[in-house]
Amino acid sequence: MKTILIFIVCLICSVVQVAASDRCQDEVFLRRAYLTVTGALPWPQECEEFLSDTNPDKREQLIDKLLKSELGLKYMQMHWGDILRIKSEFPSNLWPNGVQAYNRWIYEQLLNNVPYDKMVQELLLSSGSNFRSPASNFYRGFQKRSPQNFYNNINLLFLGNRNCSDNGYLCFSQIKFKSTKEWKEEITYLDFHKTVPWQKIRLEDGTILKLYPDSDWREAYVLWLTSRNNRRFAEVLVNRMWYWVFGKGIVHEPDDWRDDNRPSDPELLKELTDYFLQQNFNIRALLKKILLSEQFNAKTAPEGGYTPQRLPAEVIVDAIASVTGIWSTYSSRVPEPFTFYPPRTRATHLGDATVSSSELELFGKVSRDVSLESQRNNAITSRQLLYLMNSSQLERRIRKSPTLQKIYINSTNIEQLATAITLRVLSRRATEQEIAMYKEYAEQSNQPLMETAIDIMWMQMNSNEFLYNHKSLRL
Amino acid sequence: MRTILLTLILLLSLCFGVNAQRAKSVILVYLDGGPAQTDTFDPKPEMGRNYHGNYSGVCKTNVEGIEIGEKLPLLAGMADKYSLIRSMTHGSNAHETGHYAMITGDTSGGAVVYPSFGAVISYMKRDSYKGILPCYISVTSANSRFNEGGFLGNEYKSFDTGGKPEGSEYEVEGVVNKFVDRKRMDSRMSLLNKFESNSMNCKELDSLRDINMEFIWGDSREVFNLSNEPDSIRQRYGKSKLGQSCLVARRLVEAGVPFVNVRTTGWDTHKKHFQKMNTMLPNLDKALSALIADLDSRGLLDSTIVLCGGEFGRSPKVWWEAPWNGGRAHFGNAFSYLVAGGGFHGGKVVGKSDKTGEKVAERPVRPCELIGTVYLLMGIDPYGTLPHVSEGNLPILPSLIDNKPSEGLLYEIIDIKSPDHETTK
């Protein structure tokens, strides 16, 4: 009965397709693309260049540039770190050296755009030292290191399966760990001393895997997992990339694939998956296709598919820093020795969920306790707004902002001042209507121009335009 | 059938007092880094200098038979108001896991991350607590070494006040901002409203901002204003950060806040232990004794639980050798906690450490048993459940039902009687 109902609802939905809205303006696209791909705001100069560029292919050029930029790769690295739970301390307990090696490995995969199937194969088939064979950290990052836990996590990450009932976990039963004399170094190795001559394993979909003695049993499973015939493997990645871009999956939650949780747009999922396979698991090509899609380029219309997304914690903290020009300093108190990050390190680049700050906690930095996408909570709370409205921390940053002081020195009147602040904070040109509003405010408030500048910057940083990434999504 | 069963359970729980709430609030005075139990609540004067270090004396308390460290004379004068647990144990010597154990009552190693007990209380009181002040407040910040909200999520994490309560002006983050008065804020807000009037605004932001305006400019602002307090009281708590933070805690509890975490750092004294203790212990003595006495004189102690301790204790044996030169190491085998008010009896000692203080000799108390007792007094069923996004309902304190040897909740120092399932275990 329930299925029939769902079917009918889906049918109605697909018939009543809302007409395609127009493409968004360049300035909207610029901010949206920067925040989505790099987690950073564009610098004023980049805004000016992009807005005055007359090349019709400029959006595609921008996407290409951002996907390959260090900012883009590092932001992608953060997303992978979230679901792989990269963290020095509890509960993953990888320790700082392991975290560093693991992050570098991910960065290199992204930099070289290693095909997804190859990347997952290396991740799941590595053994050796956590420092020298970074991908082997995958199996170390569990509080309870058991074949069942490894298997559950692999199913969740790569198949979106939250409940595995088959005995595929046997493929991971040879994994053992031993420490070396080196501080916190640990070897992941395979123990072949199993007495069983060979075993047959039947996976949920009916596939039979044969496990032979004196061989790596993980291999049988991982080759099945990553093969082109296992379409679910590709679909889950495609859907996850869609989710990373739009904040909503075609299958939603993106890590909850069940028969009764169908894709909202099966055609779209099929088209993207076909493309991804045709491109040989090329993640960058897939992302480019999504970012150039009509959906990502659509106008933010109040009716229908308007989906504002609050900026993620790390992104908002970085945005506040880059707008004011005053950056937080980060350090890790995990022994030993303590880690001090260089000045102007972005929160999106920390790479270790153990490193935090009160601001990051306030805005809901992912604690990397579990591999679920839903652990990132971007709902706005009154306390977050309280911080923006009236905290001494933010007030002092604005008052001491070198960016604002520079703008103030270079402006002779309120119009120039407001224009420059708007370009810096909201990455766009101020409208005439807005300029008039600021002029009126300056006259009425009867205070030094610098104080008015502070108020304007405060106001823009409190606006929903600043706090959200404005996208349009119809699903 | 099911209704009958439910009624039965309800009746039983009423009989055994599971829902009988004694306490309204909890103040946790958290000595982050791990205080030395042998220099505070469990002195070992007879063990020689290799153990008692520079503190060979003790303070006799006003309760016969109870002695505490020589640096705590004020607390010694009021031992009838609190009880001491001298047999806390979780066995972990690492900050993060010790902290996790003491703050969640869970043992590390499971597949899920539990919320801190402040977050749990905040979750449990989400409907009944109506105050404008947050339900769970940290003065001045929570320890962020693990995810405070656990699987309950961000919403139940603590509100960190930030600022310096011991300074001339206590700038509570988001509430007290000395650059902005009401008039300035109003003109900023009107500019913001005008700016947003032509944008696609979510109504949600507007209503949240309204709530904040009430929080910033309403009565609760005065709760944080320590200049409302007579100077004699401020002196009594001591002008240290810990002292003034305890005073803030009292004011918050008076205003009805259910959970206040007063976190003070610097207790991780591997080196120069005794030099540091010479100033830190008198500060603690002053702050904690003033807090308990002040709550008592205002009639608040009966409804306010005060807890004091850290993530573990420190090694009873002093490390005299270089490079420590008189330090104490982490120690999770046997350490102490002070409990007072909210239904906890005073003048009692629970458990015992052995002669050297290195092992629990009698009545081990695990973190889950202490926290479970706090839940009980707060009217929260310690055998109840919490919702997890993908795992369904999980036990609120899994360690309470893990079948490991347990001498149960601290029924010996509260008025609630142990139900049958507890005693037969």
Report on this model:
- The complex is a heterodimer of chains A (475) and B (425).
- About 4% of the residues of chain A have low confidence.
- With 475 residues, chain A is mainly alpha-helical.
- The longest helix of chain A has 17 residues.
- In chain A, helix 16 packs across helix 17, helix 19 packs across helix 20 and helix 19 packs parallel to helix 21.
- Chain A has a three-stranded antiparallel sheet. A two-stranded antiparallel ribbon of chain A has the order 4-5. Chain A has a two-stranded antiparallel ribbon with strand order 6-9.
- Chain A contains 22 helices and nine strands.
- Chain A has two domains: 229 residues, no CATH class; 112 residues, no CATH class.
- Chain A is 51% helix and 7% strand.
- Chain A is globular and about 85 Å long.
- In chain A, strand 4 and strand 5 form a beta hairpin.
- Helix content of chain B is 32%, strand content 15%.
- Chain B is globular.
- Chain B has an eight-stranded mixed sheet. A two-stranded antiparallel ribbon of chain B has the order 2-3.
- About 1% of the residues of chain B have low confidence.
- The longest helix of chain B is centred in the C-terminal third of the chain and has 25 residues.
- Chain B is built from 13 helices and 16 strands.
- Chain B has two domains: 359 residues, Alkaline Phosphatase, subunit A (3-Layer(aba) Sandwich); 47 residues.
- In chain B, strand 2 and strand 3 form a beta hairpin.
- Chain B is an alpha/beta fold.
- Classes of the chains: A mainly alpha (475), B alpha/beta (425).
- At the A-B interface, helix 15, helix 16, helix 17, helix 20 and helix 21 of A face helix 4, strand 6, helix 6 and helix 7 of B.
Quick structural summary:
The complex is a heterodimer of chains A (about 475) and B (about 425). Chain A is mostly helical.
Secondary structure layout plus pairing:
The complex is a heterodimer of chains A (475) and B (425).
Chain A: H1 2-15, H2 26-38, H3 44-52, H4 58-68, H5 70-84, H6 95-111, H7 116-125, E1 128-129, H8 137-140, H9 147-159, E2 175-179, E3 186-190, E4 199-202, E5 208-211, H10 217-225, H11 231-246, H12 266-278, H13 283-291, E6 306-310, H14 313-324, E7 331-332, E8 339-340, H15 358-362, H16 382-390, H17 392-400, H18 402-410, H19 414-426, H20 432-445, H21 449-462, H22 464-467, E9 468-472
Antiparallel strand pairs in A: 1-3, 2-3, 4-5, 6-9, 7-8
Chain B: H1 2-15, E1 25-31, H2 49-52, E2 58-60, E3 67-69, H3 73-76, E4 82-88, H4 95-104, H5 117-124, E5 136-139, E6 159-160, H6 182-196, H7 203-217, H8 220-223, H9 231-237, H10 241-254, E7 259-264, H11 273-297, E8 304-309, E9 313-314, E10 330-331, E11 335-340, E12 349-350, E13 352-353, E14 360-362, H12 367-377, E15 385-388, E16 392-395, H13 420-423
Parallel strand pairs in B: 1-7, 1-8, 4-12, 5-6, 5-7
Antiparallel strand pairs in B: 2-3, 4-11, 8-11, 9-10, 13-14, 15-16
